[in-house]
Amino acid sequence: MAGAKDKLVDGLYGLGWAGVKKLPEPAAAALGRKIADVAWKRRGKSVLRLESNLARVVPDAGPERLRALSQAGMRSYMRYWMESFRLPAMDPRRFGTDVSIKDDHILREALASGRGVIVALPHLANWDLAGAWVTGHVGVPFTTVAERLRPESLYDRFVAYRESLGMEVLPHSGGAAFGTLARRLRAGGLICLVADRDLSSSGVEVDFFGATARMPAGPALLAQQTGAALLPVTLYYGDAPRMYGRIHPEVAVPASGTRAEKTATMTQVVADAFASGIAEHPEDWHMLQRLWLEDLEERPK
Length: 301
Fold this sequence. Notes:
This protein is α/β, with parallel strands linked by helices. Helix content is 53%, strand content 16%. The strands form 2 sheets. Strands 1-9-8-2-5-3-4 form a 7-stranded mixed sheet, sandwiched between helices. A hairpin with a 2-residue loop joins strand 6 and strand 7 (211-215).
């Protein structure tokens, strides 16, 4: 049964990649909105979890406001997928016109320094499009890490898709990714990591919208170990096809403290930068999973 389900999932994603990129852009956008609205009206687990997460981000929102936010959030999430399916066929010149990043001089100056750069992003708007902006407009290749998906063929599709955009993709599992990332940084390279959720035992506890969550230690540890610049980045959607973003100031390595203390301090700074971007554009935060420790404890034992 699992094998049949895996084949179905892979087939659906394959259909998306093959079919959506052939649609006219307005038709693809309309399809995304329709799928989002159908999913939202069904009030499934993912939609309810999105609403629960948004309730922490916008604590003064009443039920009507939360429902409107979750509907906008599902539309934003499906916009991400429709855009991602179409990215390999997009004219690279559009990366410079459709994407506008504030304070991108911080990124360019850090790259020019030769120290290596770690970009840390939350699940805001379209991080793949931001990656295409880096490779296609800034003209810099980078390395990232992808979670191994089931079925394996689906993971292979994601890797091939991202590599077609100029990214080097490492598997999250296996333990070798950290060493490879460190080598890329010591060579003055760029790595980009989605870093707003980590449920592993190595995750760093942070205060996030007034409650405790865990975020990856990797970005802060890599910055300490290699001397690379750690730059949080937040994104948000404008009217289609525009996307905007901001490069936040470098997260400094504390002058004193143990490695664990420095990691905790730096990860909290990253979390605060993420929170500022999410609070301004909550509808573009695609967090449809449990994040806060209190919510994880709700699971039946």
